[in-house]
């Protein structure tokens, strides 16, 4: 049975809870098959701290991430918790600029799943050919591939590309999904992943049916009127964490 992580004199209750939330998300992503060796990142701001966010330790698989081994860093890449683990520069460079410049985006997800990368690598990107894709039409930003994102100067262009949006499709690379909360970012990512999977399947079968703009507008209008009392993605994410707990609850350590 996993041992629950306890707050210390150096760790606030808010950070303690954020660590558990983020660790559980890494395990959910692994369960869903969305991990990529020791690469890719999900980051979360530490509540109550001006410039601090949590990121996965470089070198560990998503299935090994737990509350205690997440690394707390600032937007300059400095470790704030004395962690012995390194931080992937590509993860720091990309995520830190978004956390710094987009203060309401508390959770940021970047992955390399086959479906999302394939759509990012296709001319036209995501197309309005299925229910989930119609959620995103007009709400996605794109950024041309410049190589691995380790140069700080690319950060300005990334921020400029994404302004006003919560999904940035890095062409020939993969998606960046953002949210005001982790559950919100999760359900946005889940919907995008499904949209891309269905688009790949549809394109393999022949010419797709394109949903007209006026129908997309109605679809998005009606979706926006669905208000969940617990917040966007909260019950969805909680359900996935319950599934993870049945497999391995060690993310709590």
From TrEMBL:
- Pfam families noted in UniProt: Aldolase_II
Record the organism. Blastomonas natatoria
What's the protein name?
Ribulose-5-phosphate 4-epimerase/fuculose-1-phosphate aldolase
Q: NCBIfam families in the record, alphabetically?
A: PRK07044.1
Family per record: Belongs to the aldolase class II family.
Q: Check the record and name the SUPFAM superfamilies matching this protein.
A: AraD/HMP-PK domain-like (SSF53639)
* GO cellular component assignments: cytoskeleton
Output one GO MF annotation. Answer: actin filament binding
Report the residue ranges that make up the Class II aldolase/adducin N-terminal domain in this protein. Answer: 20-200
């Amino acid at each position: 049975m996993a041992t629950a992580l306890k707050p210390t004199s150096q760790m606030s209750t808010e950070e303690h809870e954020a660590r558990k939330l983020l660790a559980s998300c890494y395990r959910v992503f692994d369960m869903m098959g969305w991990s990529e060796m020791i690469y890719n990142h999900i980051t979360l701001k530490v509540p109550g701290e001006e410039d601090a966010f949590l990121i996965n330790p470089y070198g560990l698989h998503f299935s090994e991430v737990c509350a205690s081994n997440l690394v707390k860093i600032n937007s300059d890449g400095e470790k704030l918790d004395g962690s012995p683990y390194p931080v992937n520069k590509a993860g720091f460079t990309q995520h830190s600029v978004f956390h710094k410049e987009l203060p309401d985006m508390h959770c940021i997800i970047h992955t390399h799943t086959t479906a999302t990368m394939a759509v990012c690598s296709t001319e036209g990107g995501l197309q309005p050919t299925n229910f989930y894709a119609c959620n995103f039409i007009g709400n996605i930003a794109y950024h041309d591939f410049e190589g691995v994102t380790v140069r700080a100067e690319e950060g300005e262009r990334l921020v400029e590309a994404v302004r006003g949006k919560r999904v940035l499709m890095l062409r020939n690379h993969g998606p960046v999904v953002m949210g005001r909360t982790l559950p919100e970012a999760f359900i946005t990512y889940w919907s995008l992943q499904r949209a891309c999977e269905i688009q790949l399947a549809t394109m393999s079968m022949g010419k797709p049916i394109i949903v007209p703009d006026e129908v997309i507008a109605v679809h998005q209008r009606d979706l926006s009127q669905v208000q969940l009392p617990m917040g966007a993605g909260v019950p969805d994410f909680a359900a996935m964490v319950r599934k993870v707990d049945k497999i391995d609850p060690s993310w709590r350590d």
